[in-house]
Design goal:
The protein is α+β, with helices and mostly antiparallel strands. The protein is built from seven helices and eight strands, in the order ααααββββαββαββα. A hairpin with a 2-residue loop joins β1 and β2.
C-alpha cells in the first residue's frame, strides 16, 4: 500500500514539473513573438517616418524622371531631323542617336537618385567597379563594339561596297555593333567580327566609281605583236561600256618560255566591271581565233629517234629510243 501511494505522489510531482516547463516555454515563445512584433513595428515606423520626410524628394525624383525622359525624346527628335536634313548616313545616325539617348537617360536617373538622398558617389564607384569586371570578362566583345564604332564613324566602308579581307569576299549588307555581314555572289552570308576588319588589311573594290580591268593575253612567239594589239584595241574602242577618255592600252608584259604575255588595261564604271570583264575575255578569244593569232597552251611533243647503226643487232637485243 505504501508503494502505491509513493508511485501516485511521484506521478503528481512529475506532472507538475512538466506543466511548469511547458508554461515556461510558452512564456518564452510569447516574449520572443512580442520582441519580433516590436522590432517590426519599429522598422515600419522608421520606414514610415523616412517616407514622410523623403516624400517631397521622391516626388521631385519622379518629376525629374518624367521630365528628363520627355526632354531626351525631344533632343533625339531634333538631332534626327538635323541628320536627315544633312543627309547623314543612316547607320551613323542610328548609332549616334542610340548613344545620345542612353547617355541622357543615365544622367537623368543619376539626378533622380541624388534628389532622393542616396550617395551618388558610392553608386558611381560601385557601377564603375562592376563595369571594369564585366569589361575584363567581355574584352573581345567590347573590342568588336569599339571597332564597330570606328567603322561607322570613320566610314571605312558602307553598305553596298564589295570587300575582300583574309581571303573572304562579299558585298556589305549590314554593319552591326559587333559584326559586319557580307553576302557573296553565290548568295552565302559571311559574318566577320568588326575587330578583324579594323586590324587587318581590307580591299574595297567599289569605293571608287571607276575601275580598271587587268587582263593577261598570251600569244605565240611566231605571232605579230602589233597585229594582236590592233585586234584587242579594236574591241576596246568598239565597246560602249569602256571609258574611252581613260588610258586603255595593250603592251607586252612578260616574255615567258612558250608565250608572249600581253597586258591589257580597260577602264570602266565600277558597276560594269564584271559584265565588261566577261565580255572582253570572250571577245578577245574569238577575235584572235578569227585573225589566226595563236594562243599557246601547254603541250608535250615526243620525237622517236631510231639509231641506224643498231639495225643489225644480235637476236634478243632491243633498239634504243630517245624522247625529246
Amino acid at each position: 500500500m505504501k508503494f502505491v501511494l509513493f508511485d501516485q505522489v511521484s506521478s503528481q510531482v512529475s506532472a507538475q514539473v512538466s506543466t511548469q516547463d511547458s508554461e515556461e516555454s510558452t512564456v518564452n515563445m510569447v516574449q520572443q513573438m512580442e520582441k519580433n512584433i516590436n522590432t517590426t513595428q519599429k522598422w515600419l515606423q522608421d520606414a514610415y517616418n523616412w517616407f514622410i520626410q523623403a516624400l517631397p524628394n521622391i516626388i521631385s525624383a519622379l518629376l525629374i524622371l518624367i521630365i528628363g525622359w520627355w526632354i531626351t525624346k525631344i533632343i533625339c527628335k531634333i538631332i534626327r531631323k538635323a541628320m536627315q536634313k544633312g543627309k547623314a548616313d543612316p547607320t551613323v545616325s542610328s548609332f549616334l542617336l542610340s548613344v545620345i539617348s542612353v547617355t541622357l537617360k543615365i544622367m537623368v536617373v543619376i539626378c533622380a537618385i541624388a534628389t532622393v538622398g542616396f550617395d551618388v558617389t558610392t553608386l558611381i564607384t560601385t557601377v564603375g567597379a562592376a563595369a571594369v569586371t564585366v569589361g575584363l570578362a567581355l574584352k573581345d566583345s567590347l573590342a568588336n563594339v569599339a571597332s564597330g564604332t570606328l567603322i561607322i564613324l570613320n566610314k571605312r566602308f558602307k553598305i553596298g561596297d564589295y570587300l575582300e579581307t583574309e581571303g573572304l569576299k562579299g558585298k556589305v549588307v549590314k554593319i552591326d555593333m559587333m559584326y559586319t555581314t557580307l553576302c557573296t555572289y553565290d548568295n552565302k552570308e559571311i559574318l566577320i567580327p568588326n575587330s578583324r576588319l579594323t586590324s587587318n588589311n581590307v580591299t574595297n573594290y567599289f569605293v571608287k566609281t571607276e575601275r580598271r580591268i587587268d587582263l593577261i593575253v598570251p600569244i605565240a612567239y611566231t605571232e605579230d605583236i602589233a597585229k594582236a594589239r590592233q585586234v584587242i584595241m579594236g574591241l576596246i574602242h568598239a565597246s560602249d561600256l569602256v571609258l574611252q577618255d581613260k588610258y586603255n592600252r595593250v603592251a607586252v608584259d612578260t616574255l615567258n618560255e612558250s608565250s608572249v604575255d600581253l597586258s591589257v588595261w580597260i577602264w570602266c564604271r565600277s558597276d560594269d566591271y564584271w559584265k565588261l570583264s566577261e565580255e572582253m575575255k570572250e571577245s578577245i578569244k574569238n577575235s584572235l581565233d578569227a585573225n589566226n593569232i595563236q594562243i599557246p597552251y601547254n603541250q608535250l611533243d615526243i620525237h622517236i629517234i631510231e639509231n641506224k647503226n643498231q639495225k643489225n643487232l644480235p637476236e634478243g637485243s632491243t633498239k634504243k629510243e630517245r624522247a625529246v
